[in-house]
Each structure stands twice: as structure tokens, then as C-alpha cells.
């Protein structure tokens, strides 16, 4: 009886979950020495864990991203830890590194020596130098710059825009 119920549950799960999610092209793990010496090509999206020993590059990353230099050409969701973090698409989550650079919308916490963001930041930047194109949130650091819409274009220690 237990096997029959388990079989029905698995059958229901297989047919109830959209097939697109089951057979998606995302890979669960990526290990890179440097790009292109990595398990999957840079055009692959990673959903799970990415470990970049020297330099890794992928299209989208969801989950934990850890390494010396982390590069994402698409969207990043989750936590990113590295010496240098580069994200071309949007970012949602926690980014920690010596240098953090993002180009599109950023939502979350950015913590590093230099935090540079060309687009809109929604959240908190903690660092020695913080730069945001526009911001809805708070910057804490020695040099804080909000290009558009901040309380001040430049202000030491703390700057904000709400």
C-alpha cells in the first residue's frame, strides 16, 4: 500500500509540475578555474552553487556564488562572496567583496571596500567608497555619492535617498 501511494505521489508530481521547470537549462553547480576552463560554458545559467577558484563567468546565477572574481552577464539572485564581484544584469540579495560593481537594478545589501552601481539601488551600501546612479535607501562609508535624487550628491559618513 505504501509503495502504491508513493508511486501515485511521484506520478502526480511529474505531471503536475510544468515540464519547463523540470527540463530547464539551468545547471545546479559550476566550478571554474578561470573562464573558459569551467564545467559549463559562460552562456549557461546556474541555479545552486557556483565556485570560482580564480575567475568564473555565467549568464545568470541563483543561489550561492563564491570565488576570487565572480562575473555574471545576466541576473544574479542570492548571495555573492568574492574579491571582485561583477554583475551586468539585475541583482537581488547580498553582495560582499572588496570591489562590487553592478550595472542594472540592485536590491539588497552591498558590502565592500568599493561599491559601484550605475543603476538604481534599493537597499543598503556599506563600504569605504559607495556610488549609486540613483538610490532608494542608505549609504554608509567614508565617501558616499548618489548621482541622482539623493539627499546630497556627495556626503561623507552617511547619505540617503527615500
Protein described:
By secondary structure, the protein is mainly β. The chain has one domain (29-161). 12% of the residues lie in helices and 68% in strands. It contains 2 helices and 8 strands; from the N terminus they run H-H-E-E-E-E-E-E-E-E. It has helices at residues 2-16, 19-22, and strands at residues 27-34, 37-38, 46-58, 61-72, 76-87, 91-102, 106-148, 154-161. Strands 2-1-3-4-5-6-7-8 form an 8-stranded mixed sheet, with no helix packed on it. The N and C termini lie far apart (60 Å). The model is unreliable at 6-23 (pLDDT under 50).
What distinguishing features does this structure have?
162 residues; mainly beta; eight-stranded mixed sheet; 2 helices; 8 strands; 12% helix; elongated
Helix/strand-derived category reads: mainly beta
Separation of termini?
Answer: 60 Å
**Number of strand elements:** 8
Largest sheet: 8 strands, mixed
Element-by-element helix/strand order: HHEEEEEEEE
Low-confidence stretches: 6-23
Compute the number of structural domains.
1
The chain-level mean pLDDT equals: 89
**Discrete helix count:** 2
**Beta-strand content:** over 45%
- CA radius of gyration is 19 Å
- Arrangement of strands in the largest sheet: 2-1-3-4-5-6-7-8
Structure at a glance:
Helix content is about 10%, strand content about 70%.
Would you spell out the secondary-structure blueprint of this structure?
Layout: H1 2-16, H2 19-22, E1 27-34, E2 37-38, E3 46-58, E4 61-72, E5 76-87, E6 91-102, E7 106-148, E8 154-161
Parallel strand pairs: 1-3, 3-4, 4-5, 5-6, 6-7
Antiparallel strand pairs: 1-2, 7-8
Amino acid at each position: 500500500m505504501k509503495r502504491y501511494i508513493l508511486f501515485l505521489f511521484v506520478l502526480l508530481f511529474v505531471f503536475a509540475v510544468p515540464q519547463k521547470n523540470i527540463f530547464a537549462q539551468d545547471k545546479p553547480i559550476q566550478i571554474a578555474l578561470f573562464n573558459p576552463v569551467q564545467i559549463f560554458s559562460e552562456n549557461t545559467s546556474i541555479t545552486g552553487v557556483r565556485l570560482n577558484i580564480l575567475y568564473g563567468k555565467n549568464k545568470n546565477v541563483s543561489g550561492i556564488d563564491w570565488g576570487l572574481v565572480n562575473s555574471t552577464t545576466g541576473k544574479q539572485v542570492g548571495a555573492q562572496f568574492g574579491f571582485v564581484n561583477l554583475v551586468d544584469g539585475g541583482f537581488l540579495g547580498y553582495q560582499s567583496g572588496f570591489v562590487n560593481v553592478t550595472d542594472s537594478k540592485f536590491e539588497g545589501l552591498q558590502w565592500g571596500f568599493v561599491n559601484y552601481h550605475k543603476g538604481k539601488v534599493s537597499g543598503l551600501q556599506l563600504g569605504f567608497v559607495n556610488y549609486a546612479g540613483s538610490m532608494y535607501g542608505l549609504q554608509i562609508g567614508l565617501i558616499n555619492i548618489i548621482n541622482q535624487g539623493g539627499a546630497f550628491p556627495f556626503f561623507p559618513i552617511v547619505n540617503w535617498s527615500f
